[in-house]
Amino acid sequence: MAQANLSPEATKTPPIEGHPHLPDWKWYDYFTFNIDHKVIGIQYLVLAFIFYLIAGLMAVAMRTELATPDSDFMDPSLYNALLTNHGTIMIFLWIVPAAIGGFGNYLVPLMIGARDMAFPKLNALAFWLNPPAGALLLGSFLFGGAQAGWTSYPPLSVITANTAQSMWILAVVLVGTSSIMGSVNFLVTIWKMRVPSMKWDQLPLFCWAMVATSFLALFSTPVLAAGLILLLFDINFGTGFFQPDAGGNVVVYQHLFWFYSHPAVYLMILPIFGIMSEVIPVHARKPIFGYKAIAYSSLTISIVGLFVWVHHMFTSGTPPWMRIFFTISTLIVAVPTGIKIFSWVATLWGGKIRFTSAMLFAVGLLSMFVFGGLSGVTLGTAPFDIHVHDTYYVVGHFHYVLFGGSVFGIYAGIYHWFPKMTGRMLNETLGRLHFVLTFIGTNLTFAPMHELGMQGMPRRVAMYDPQFVGLNQLATIGAFTLGISVLPMLINVIWSWSRGPKAGGNPWNALTLEWTTPSPPPVENWTILPAVTHGPYEYGVGIQPPQPDQPALDEA
Amino acid sequence: MKQIPASLLTLVIGVVVTLISLWVGQNHGWLPEQASEQAVLVDDFFNVMVVIATALFLVVQGAILFALFQFRQRQGDTTDGEPIEGNLPLEAFWTAIPAVIVIGLGTYSVYVFQEMGGFNPGLQEANSQGTMVAQVMDEQVSDVGAPLVDHGAADKQVAGNYGFGASPMKEGNTPDLTVEVKGLQYAWIFTYPDSGIVDGELHVPANQDVLLNISSQDVIHSFWVPQFRLKQDAIPGEETELRFVATKPGTYSVVCAELCGAYHGGMRTQVIVHTPEDFEQWRESRVAQAPHQDETVAANPAEMTATDYLAPVSQALNIHTHSLAHLTSEQ
Ligand code: HEM
Ligand SMILES: [Cu+2]
Ligand SMILES: [Cu+2]
């Protein structure tokens, strides 16, 4: 498995001798610099999930503090450290690595009929930047913890907890670097390594989403890195880029930060949209509705998404023309997003819907995303945003989108592809329990926050006005429910991975290429590369789904 | 079901959804009371969005639930659904609907923002010559030294063009009252340049045009009065402004909305909206009370530390206990 040769011939490697061998990876192989894209994908997923649990515990601790108006459970500066690391870890070490690194690496080569990513070593290197980033963030607690929120606006970030703040910057720069490496890899892989028989309009929508995501990451991430490195200089070497008394400007940092960080929300959501477009048609047994519209709307989102960042800065002293321009551009993003939602609903319409756990999470996502999207439109309009900016309304909104939109999607993906990744089925009863608890918990935690914000509760506070205590307690109960909801999933994954019933190559009778290999797929994925004879979603026209566990594998 | 024509059913559903949405838009009660001219504008706009959002929410969630129920896999049925891959008119339709809604909301929001003064911060200086200044001076500054006002006016010349200025109706008018607002960890200091009053709470007269010149001594803070629906960051190194007309006498919270340190949550104070007569009374009592008023105002607050700054007014300041404890322990 050398670095891929990028000529089309590379995909016509001669069949590997003998039978396809199942990967006999031992557990410790997952702790090494392994360059198999499937190992890397699983490494990403597992590491990200561990960080999810850690950041989730931080959230539960924060919500415990917020059960009462006073800061009586923890010191307010510890609260701020938890807040900062919760947000940072959730974004940079859970959603992004799980959705892009995990599913992207695992699925893209399988879906396009390639033996690996274009640059396997770069791929492994990109993964291995993540553990030190996590260690830096967690280690920062020994130095008081970064205090300034995941946005780290100066001057606050320059004057509090300097060592911890520097560690935070290094951590984010590391994951940013990882994301740039990953993006280059995805673009080259999808461009150059599709099986020759696969045309662009037969590319699975998940891969389209990865193209859009990678473009966006390539354009925006360097800007964040630049901003953060200037900030690092301000903190440690006495420069004054963002220090007004040294001739700097605090608002410039906000522009640099949001130029990346607004697109970052699309980085999180676009791959999830891709997962949705794969899961729904399979379990609804219908072709995806509006393939082209979905593919192009991903690209539209990634382009328009680069021009909306100032909607985070309507109160930051931005010039009036910017407020107009960015109100309009923000609202425009609602159109391609709406197209996707409608297309998924239309895919359900007239299907034969199977209520698998994967489908439940996919539909749950649809429902939550409709809510989060509508509150997002209200936030895009400057006059209303002025009122609720930096309040719990925003916290409610972005958790609907990030939890309801991203986490639900990752769960849907796990239930859908776990059989492919491990060769075993997950337990559906535990899966349904997981869904019900998560759905109730998410709504209970985050719905009341909208009202809190509108009524006057600012965000990022360890103490609040006693008038807000009732709704806060509801949210805290919700957070505990969410904490518990992970247990059935954890038990399910651990138990089924070793003992679950065997899955077979194609348990869902799906038509995309990853289901033409045995589960789990052998090293280099296929003995003979599959030929594409039909589109990825042609359900209901009598195509026999591949059943690659049988000896017929080589003809799949 | 078979007997009822689909178009009739659609019509009925449409009417019901519309009625529900209109009702929700008027009766949701999600926002706190309105206490400024701007609040009315924002709320009307929000209510329109609530109507639209409720309708979309009901239609889409309804469609999802209906599909889940109607198109679930029946026992023993292993066939696939009908292979419908797209429908151009339908897709054009649901691209057009959100596009129209979004353009409508965008236009409306620009209009509201204009009315609120979001597009003309700092413009009043250009037109502030003329009789208005003199008028305000005899109205309000009768018992305090006039030079202070000049000082305030001169300051405004250098103020940045950021924040909320006058609404189109008030554009060109000099504000009835100007207050210098300074944010610092973890308190707001309000200085009345025309009378030299310094306070930890904001006092303003109802139904008059008030201009806040907002600055920060240390980190970014954000001045928010939920009942006014107005918020403006206090940015170190830059002056921003917030101009409003409070409409309803009463006491409202002033909240800091931007993370400004450990005790950010404790950075709360009050704005007291007086009737104009009460306001005069309050002001006279404060002017009479302040013993070293002249010295205090003569000093340039920007050159003082927080402790010096707070010292002359510490009794009068009404700072949250957390923050006061924190301030004193820090210095
Ligand atoms: C157990 C579920 C969760 C709970 C109870 C929870 C709770 C909270 C709370 C209380 C805050 C502080 C809000 C504020 O004051 O601004 C917060 C902030 C945040 N959360 Fe979560 N959260 C959860 C899951 C997630 C997930 C899955 C993400 C995914 C990306 C996420 C991303 C964030 C971000 C970005 C912030 C902002 C941090 C900052 O302001 O610096 N959270 N969360
Ligand atoms: Cu503050
Ligand atoms: Cu604050």
From TrEMBL, chain A:
Topology of the protein relative to the lipid bilayer: Multi-pass membrane protein
PROSITE patterns: COX1 (PS50855), COX1_CUB (PS00077)
Domain (Cytochrome oxidase subunit I profile) ranges: 21-533
EC number(s) reported in the record: 7.1.1.9
MF-aspect GO terms: cytochrome-c oxidase activity; heme binding; metal ion binding; oxidoreductase activity
Cell compartments where the protein resides: Cell membrane; Membrane
Record key words, sorted: Cell membrane, Copper, Electron transport, Heme, Iron, Membrane, Metal-binding, Oxidoreductase, Respiratory chain, Translocase, Transmembrane, Transmembrane helix, Transport
Job of this protein: Cytochrome c oxidase is the component of the respiratory chain that catalyzes the reduction of oxygen to water. Subunits 1-3 form the functional core of the enzyme complex. CO I is the catalytic subunit of the enzyme. Electrons originating in cytochrome c are transferred via the copper A center of subunit 2 and heme A of subunit 1 to the bimetallic center formed by heme A3 and copper B.
Protein name: Cytochrome c oxidase subunit 1
Gene (name only): ctaD
Automatic annotation (TrEMBL), chain B:
Enzyme class of the recorded protein, top EC level: translocase
Domain Cytochrome oxidase subunit II copper A binding: 174-285
Reaction(s) catalysed (UniProt annotation): 4 Fe(II)-[cytochrome c] + O2 + 8 H(+)(in) = 4 Fe(III)-[cytochrome c] + 2 H2O + 4 H(+)(out)
Cofactor comment: Binds a copper A center.
Record EC number: 7.1.1.9
UniProt keyword list: Copper, Electron transport, Membrane, Metal-binding, Oxidoreductase, Respiratory chain, Translocase, Transmembrane, Transmembrane helix, Transport
Single Gene Ontology BP annotation: ATP synthesis coupled electron transport
Pfam families, sorted: COX2 (PF00116), COX2_TM (PF02790)
Cofactor(s) recorded in Swiss-Prot or TrEMBL: Cu cation
Topology in the lipid bilayer: Multi-pass membrane protein
Function recorded in the entry: Subunits I and II form the functional core of the enzyme complex. Electrons originating in cytochrome c are transferred via heme a and Cu(A) to the binuclear center formed by heme a3 and Cu(B).
Name listed for the protein in its UniProt record: Cytochrome c oxidase subunit 2
